[in-house]
């Protein structure tokens, strides 16, 4: 072949068969046979297809509540970055602790036989609360679930968090891979704590914060994808104000119009007065956003809900405490059954549609309640973001203001303030502060609108 001026295989293949036969002084049939042999040997490997491609399948862990699992598309999926956002004492940490236990359950109980890594930013892991959930929730396997499978470390700064995510955590996940409970859940409680600053706001500080958030999001998605784990990030809220419109072209969407669809929810009146902190940069980094709100509403539970959902603090001998003997009004409705409820909304998700539901926080954890049949929720869902052009809110038909709910109940007695009933509210409020994050997010919104 060298004598025929063919140095590489490509030189031979790009030359017509007749020319090859002429140069090598062979027949065209022999040249064709050489072509066929070379093409067979040089055949590229077959590209993988969706059928032949062997990728790890996403696993789904139960939240411990059937209603919430259904709303989330089956539960919390691995390979995704989930965000739980809410105000102080809304129950964010309660749900995160609940997930840290239910991930340990066997598959027949909705778990994935995994362990949890719980990163805290401003407080220690509440092991006493974890122990209480473990002992009181009958849906947790006593043989599989244990506090030893909840690993924790405290990160006080963003560089420390980056070091944990890039160096410590990947090595730890690899070490635990061969154990009975490999790491399947990562919780960060709470991310916004790391971005508090007393520095004067400027474009430079905002750029630095956005850069840190982008890098953090890349690290979290890399962990979730590479190790097939679920990442749950807890976030705070800020007060949402109508700051007015800047001069813009007709038909142009400004930040205040767009943020209604990814930063807040409006399933009940007053819920949209808060929105997620950390701004647009972080909103684009998460796969799903769950918003938990304190509505100030109270609700009477029916008999089925009482037996299945109602919190009953029991004494050590198994008998109900003395406060569990409720007084009954003239209508036969128990005053103690009036329960302080909160609202959970799935703002957006890549695996499930937006939805909203009531829930309570009990000694077992977060428990979702079926929708109140006395209210027409269809109109609420259809008018979720029904705002006027000038930003003023439109009243939703059939919606009841939180302050008016106790007065519209079908009973003449007012709900009683039960110290035992609101025990978890006081504990949650005592463990969290109410520092808001208006400054950075308001500044980011102004820059977004200006551009």
Distance between the termini: 65 Å
Poorly predicted regions are 309-335, 373-421, 431-438
| CATH architecture classification name of the domain at 60-243 and 253-301 and 338-376 | 3-Layer(aba) Sandwich
Number of helical runs?
Answer: 14
CATH topology of the domain at 60-243 and 253-301 and 338-376: Rossmann fold
Radius of gyration: 29 Å
- Beta-strand percentage range: 15-25%
CATH homologous superfamily (4th level) name of the domain at 60-243 and 253-301 and 338-376 = P-loop containing nucleotide triphosphate hydrolases
Structure classification: alpha/beta
What sequence of helices (H) and strands (E) makes up the elements?
A: HHHEHEEHEHEHEHEEHEHEHEEEHHH
Largest sheet: 9 strands, mixed
Q: Can you identify the CATH class of the domain at 60-243 and 253-301 and 338-376?
A: Alpha Beta
Q: What's the total count of β strands? A: 13
- What percent of residues adopt helix (DSSP H or I)? 25-40%
Strand order, largest beta sheet: 5-4-6-7-3-10-11-12-13
- Mean pLDDT across every amino acid position: 75
Protein name: Rad51B protein
GO biological process, one term: t-circle formation
GO molecular function, one term: four-way junction DNA binding
Main location: nucleus
Walkthrough of the structure:
With 451 residues, the protein is α/β, with parallel strands linked by helices. Among the domains are: 9-42, no CATH class; 60-243 and 253-301 and 338-376, Rossmann fold, CATH 3.40.50.300. It is 31% helix and 17% strand. It is built from 14 helices and 13 strands. It has helices spanning 9-13, 17-24, 28-41, 66-71, 92-102, 127-136, 158-176, 203-227, 255-258, 279-283, 303-308, 377-382, 423-431, 438-450, and strands at 60-61, 76-77, 81-86, 115-120, 150-154, 183-189, 230-235, 237-239, 274-276, 288-300, 338-349, 355-362, 365-369. The strands form three sheets. Strands 5-4-6-7-3-10-11-12-13 form a nine-stranded mixed beta sheet, sandwiched between helices. Strand 6 (183-189), helix 8 (203-227) and strand 7 (230-235) form a beta-alpha-beta unit. It starts with 8 loop residues before the first helix and ends with a helix. Mean pLDDT is 75; it is low at 309-335, 373-421 and 431-438.
